[in-house]
Design goal:
The complex is a heterodimer of chains A (71) and B (575). Chain A is built from 2 helices and 1 strand, in the order ααβ. With 71 residues, chain A is mostly helical. Chain B has 23 helices and 5 strands. The chains are: A mainly alpha (71), B mainly alpha (575). The interface between A and B is large, with 45 and 47 residues.
Chain lengths: 71, 575
């Protein structure tokens, strides 16, 4: 990724923060609405969790050789 | 009466499947598209209500029941038949074309069925016709996968039919109506039968097993019909069943976990069908008007973007002959149009604003929020993180952009495949930009606005940080040359043992019994030889060999006649 890609992502994120703090209205409140930038945190932690937990499960009992069913 | 039957959209397509062989080969692909177009015209001109009843034994079959729900599902099934027809336009394979039409006809028949028998008949037509789309690949793996697919669906059909019979025998309605949330044997069987077609784990393994092995064009149809027609039946029978909320969430996450692990591009997409159908199943379980609307809208959107994704993956396989992440990479510049159109599908499934996933997925998720299923809502959002991670990032990155991992040529993709992808991409964007085009046809009045600051903020933050997470950990997501075990292990691994016990064993036993009884008969028949042989052994006279039991054919016939006459006479006398 080039520097401008990171800058673009940063700009989108900042716009989302501006919208969140100044324009967003909450129709159906949830406990996480009080955490600032919650969806960013959830998105990032979710990605990390999905990758690590899945790989861990895979190594635990799901991965097999490609010819597993042929032998 | 016959003319009336022709107003049933399903009949038009199934009739098409039978007429197609009579059409000259070069016109066949064009004629293919005429049938779904006709069905589309007819299904929008039909009034609402149960339009055709046919007596059947002591029941009355309701072949054509139209309301807003069946109409919107019918519309998307027909639309995808048209798009799939364009995608398969270059194909010269009558078997695939006919079975695709019959398959679409089955899905439409299920959609407009007003009673359980009609439903079941079309349900089985779908299973049979779709199996051929796997077999038509004509590899050893697809032969076996097709047989497994067929057996699993016959089992599922059996569950459904058992449920229907139990339901009827316990005084249940013959018509398809909401079932009361009680766990009677009948309801459980029906739920399992429909759940199998909805790919609810652990009954889902047929999907990830078969779809990657189907033909390039066949998989496009398959991604649309079976699971979504089952979702439709779930909406009809089980709205508001709490268990479906949790089952749906489990599905959504199950698909995401497996999509990390598998290596075949169409298998990744297949597990994301499981994941996306999870949203719909959860929506059915929530059961509020908003949730049912969301489920319907999401099924509609899902069919469009998922078939687009399958078309993109199919184009990769068509051009390179390869389907594994560990063998692809580094050729995005050689098929920019396909990559671009695939990405529109990927943006749609990931819920980017202005694409159709955004306007339907958010509806299901919001419905969970409004119904106070907060954990469910968070987990569904987590699943959508996984969707973007795999379909939007991992798959395209390692297929087209990452380093090239094996030697392959990239051949030209037929224009009609690109046009079909273009059509899919057009609709994904159209409904994303003008959600009202879809919302106004949903079963309930829509009081929902997807384009709020809240949803923008939500999706922007999630997508940006999923991307960052992916970029930092992308090495972890690289494909591995392995397969991922799933619940099909239960019937694939013990197959040898089952074959030994139920096929080979009985076969050997029958063989043994047959040989034994033949030997016994031989022995016994030896005892009953003509006794004259023993009294007058054969001798030679005037150079000719004379046998005591060797008569000429005429003499034999005469003797037989005399014997027969003797028997008749003695019978007459005795009686």
């Amino acid at each position: 990724m080039k520097t401008w890609h990171w800058i673009a992502l940063g700009v989108v994120f900042i716009i989302s923060l501006i919208l969140e703090f100044f324009f967003m209205e909450i129709k159906s409140p949830h406990w996480w609405n009080s955490i600032p930038a919650f969806y960013a945190i959830w998105g990032f932690l979710g990605t990390v969790a999905i990758i690590y937990i899945s790989k861990w499960l895979g190594k635990l009992f799901i991965f097999r050789d490609e010819d597993y069913y042929d032998t | 009466m016959i003319l009336e039957l022709l107003t049933i959209p399903a009949v038009i397509l199934i009739l098409g499947a039978f007429l197609l062989p009579l059409v000259p080969e070069r016109a066949r692909s064009s004629v293919f598209i005429v049938f779904p177009l006709a069905a589309l015209g007819i299904l929008w001109s039909l009034p609402e209500g149960s339009l055709i009843q046919v007596p059947f034994a002591s029941y009355e079959l309701h072949l054509l029941t139209v309301d807003s729900l069946s109409r919107i599902f019918g519309t998307i099934f027909v639309m995808i038949t048209i798009i799939g027809g364009v995608y398969a336009f270059h194909l010269k394979d009558l078997g695939q074309q006919s079975s695709a039409l019959a398959y679409a006809g089955g899905a439409l028949g299920v959609t407009f069925a007003g009673d359980f028998f009609t439903l079941f008949i079309f349900w089985e037509i779908m299973a049979a016709a779709s199996t051929y789309l796997i077999w038509a690949r004509k590899t050893e793996a697809s032969d076996k996968a097709g047989m497994r697919y067929l057996l699993v669906h016959i089992f599922g059909g059996g569950l459904l039919f058992s449920g229907i019979l139990l339901h009827l025998s316990s005084g249940g309605s013959f018509l398809i109506e909401n079932l009361e949330e009680t766990y009677t044997l009948a309801n459980i069987f029906i739920l399992l039968g429909v759940g199998l077609n909805s790919a609810i784990p652990p009954l889902h393994a047929w999907l990830a097993d078969a779809y990657p092995k189907a033909t390039i064009t066949g998989a496009v149809f398959m991604s649309a019909f079976t699971t979504k027609s089952a979702v439709y039946i779930l909406i009809r029978l089980f709205p508001g069943w709490d268990i479906l909320v949790y089952v749906g969430v489990a599905m959504a996450l199950y698909g995401v976990v497996y999509a990390v692990l598998v290596n075949d591009i169409r298998e990744i997409l297949a597990y994301h069908i499981v994941s996306q159908v999870g949203y719909m199943v959860a929506g059915v379980g929530i059961g509020t008007e908003m949730a049912i609307n969301g489920t319907t809208a999401h099924a509609f959107s899902h069919i469009l973007y998922k078939s687009l994704l399958f078309m993109g993956a199919g184009a990769v396989i068509y051009a390179t002959g390869k389907s594994k992440l560990t063998e692809l990479g580094g050729f995005a510049k050689k098929m920019p149009v396909v990559v671009g159109l695939y990405m529109i599908g990927a943006f749609s499934i990931s819920g980017f604003p202005f694409f159709n996933g955004f306007i339907s997925k958010s509806m299901v998720v919001s419905a969970a929020g409004y119904a106070h299923f907060e954990t469910v809502m968070l987990l569904l959002i987590l699943a959508s993180v996984g969707t973007f991670l795999h379909t939007g990032l991992k798959l395209p990155y390692f297929t087209w952009f990452g380093e090239k991992k094996s030697e392959f040529d990239v051949s030209k993709v037929p224009l009609n495949m690109k046009i079909a992808m273009g059509m899919g991409a057009f609709f994904c964007t159209l409904f994303g930009v003008y959600p009202d085009l879809l919302y106004r046809f949903l079963p309930y009045a829509v009081d929902y606005q997807p384009y709020t600051f809240y949803h923008f903020v939500e999706m922007m933050q999630i997508l940006v940080f999923t991307f960052i997470g992916f970029w930092l950990l992308r090495k972890k997501l690289e494909g591995t040359p392995t397969i991922a075990l799933d619940t099909d292990w239960l019937y694939r691994r013990p197959a040898k043992l089952v074959r030994l016990v139920f096929v080979k064993g009985p076969n050997e036993l029958f063989g043994l019994a047959e040989r034994g009884s033949l030997a016994f008969v031989n022995k016994v028949s030896g005892l009953s030889k003509n006794p004259l042989i023993y009294l007058i052994p054969k001798f030679a006279m005037e150079g000719r060999e004379i046998k005591s039991d060797g008569f000429s054919a005429t003499m034999s016939a005469a003797l037989a006649f005399i014997l027969f006459g003797f028997l008749i006479v003695s019978l007459i006398i005795l009686l």
